[in-house]
């Protein structure tokens, strides 16, 4: 069982420890969505090869659920006392809007190239990230289709600074009750959708921001419990095993109305266990430099991958047909590599410089004075802990030590 040691009330609250493993986990969420779309776009024509993709990524759409839970956790974990709502909102806009605007413009160029009709009202909704509120079929998937999730995130960002003071003051019993109730509410969405017209049921359960915010708040509540040192859950190895078993069982035997709830719980256990491993300086496969880099570019990768794949498939005349034999898997791998290159360029030349230019900097704090450690303290047993951020200097809005030239936004 794992827990995070509570911060002493006798000294000022330090910058929250960095959580590089959660950056790495973002890549897993993006990869799940990519694999799902690679299967549904029928890139692979060979049935045997396609069956492998379908078996591995049949639940890949839940990668968005992973994103939402992770986002709620990270934003509450990294929130600092004294930050104004305006500062928080400005950072979030600086994070998501530059890439969104680039992909918005690129999608319009592609639509012009293929002579696709574009409704100005739908385009305006997409530009302002309001499309997830519109239940009309096709409108919430307008322009760059995957940006519907940014519309939901934008709603989360608006709500969090308003709700965070209540979350900070909530009693532990209430927080634990929410950890139990929120997955049950996700489960209750399936019978609740019968109250919605049939044409809008997909939108209600999968797109509608207040509904999808249940996942965000699940991560947020878990982060508050961990921040107080109250979280208890399995370690990273056990949590990963629970996730694998849940994934296999859900893909093979469990109905959709159940696996969404079970996966939400499995994802939460992995996220909290990975965060705990970082705080305690324990081994984590998600902390390696290549995986962290993949996590850093995962936001751009997510935004660009559908546009790239659909455009190439339409241009090549293989849309809905796929590639025969070994060429199908090769094309999928080619798409993976091409999207990673484009995502890296977006991250390097759009996301990072615009975050540096637009996001307000947090005022630097004096370096904390190292405390005397007890002989049984985890950090005392691990002298390398300070290099991982447990005893670190001031951090910017994402837990990165101040003065670093590269932004690492866990989102």
Question: Care to describe what's here?
Answer:
Mean pLDDT is 85; it is low at 2-12 and 365-411. With 411 residues, this protein is mainly α. The protein contains 15 helices and no strands. Helix content is 64%, strand content 0%. The chain has one domain (24-359). The radius of gyration is 21 Å and the shape is globular.
What's the quick description here?
The protein is mainly α. 64% of the residues lie in helices and 0% in strands. The chain contains 15 helices and no strands.
- How many strands in all? 0
What does the largest sheet look like?
none
SSE sequence, one letter per element = HHHHHHHHHHHHHHH
Number of helices: 15
The assigned structural class equals: mainly alpha
Mean pLDDT: 85
Distance between the termini: 27 Å
Beta content: under 5%
Which range best describes the helical content: under 10%, 10-25%, 25-40%, 40-55%, 55-70% or over 70%? Answer: 55-70%
What's the number of structural domains?
1
Low-confidence regions: 2-12, 365-411
Radius of gyration, Cα only, in angstroms? 21 Å
Please state the overall shape, judged from the principal axes of the Cα atoms: globular
């Amino acid at each position: 069982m794992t827990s995070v040691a509570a911060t002493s009330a006798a000294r000022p609250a330090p910058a929250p420890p960095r959580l590089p493993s959660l950056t790495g986990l973002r890549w897993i969420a993006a990869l799940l969505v990519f694999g799902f779309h690679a299967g549904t776009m029928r890139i692979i024509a060979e049935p045997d090869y396609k069956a492998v993709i379908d078996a591995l990524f049949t639940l890949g759409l839940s990668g968005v659920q992973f994103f939402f839970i992770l986002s709620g956790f990270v934003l509450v974990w990294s929130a600092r006392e004294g930050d104004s709502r305006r500062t928080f909102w400005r950072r979030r806009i600086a994070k998501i809007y530059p890439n969104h605007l680039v992909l918005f413009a690129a999608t319009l160029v592609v639509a012009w190239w293929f002579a696709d009709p574009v409704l100005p009202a739908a385009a305006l909704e997409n530009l302002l990230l309001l499309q997830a509120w519109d239940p009309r079929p096709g409108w919430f998937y307008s322009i760059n289709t995957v940006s519907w999730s940014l519309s939901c995130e934008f709603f989360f960002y608006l709500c969090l600074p308003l709700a965070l003071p209540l979350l900070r003051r909530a009693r532990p019993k209430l927080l634990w009750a929410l950890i139990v109730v929120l997955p049950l509410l996700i489960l209750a969405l399936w019978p609740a959708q019968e109250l919605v017209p049939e044409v809008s049921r997909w939108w209600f359960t999968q797109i509608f921001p207040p509904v999808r915010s249940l996942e965000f708040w699940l991560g947020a509540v878990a982060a508050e419990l961990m921040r107080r040192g109250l979280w208890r859950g399995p370690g990273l190895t056990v949590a990963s095993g629970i996730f694998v078993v849940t994934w296999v069982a859900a893909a093979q035997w469990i109905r959709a109305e159940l696996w969404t709830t079970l996966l939400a719980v499995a994802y939460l256990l992995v996220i909290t266990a990975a965060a705990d491993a970082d705080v305690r300086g324990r081994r984590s496969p998600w902390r390696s430099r290549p995986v962290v880099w993949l996590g850093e570019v995962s936001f751009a990768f997510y935004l660009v991958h559908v546009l790239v794949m659909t455009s190439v498939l339409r241009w090549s005349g293989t849309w809905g047909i796929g590639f025969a034999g070994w060429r199908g898997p090769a094309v999928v791998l080619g798409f993976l590599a091409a999207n990673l290159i484009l995502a890296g360029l977006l991250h390097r030349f759009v996301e990072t410089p615009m975050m540096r230019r637009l996001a307000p900097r947090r005022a630097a704090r004096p370096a904390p004075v190292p405390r005397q450690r007890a002989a049984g303290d985890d950090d005392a047993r691990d002298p390398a802990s300070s290099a991982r951020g447990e005893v670190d200097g001031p951090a910017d809005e994402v837990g990165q030590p101040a003065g670093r030239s590269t932004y690492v936004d866990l989102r």
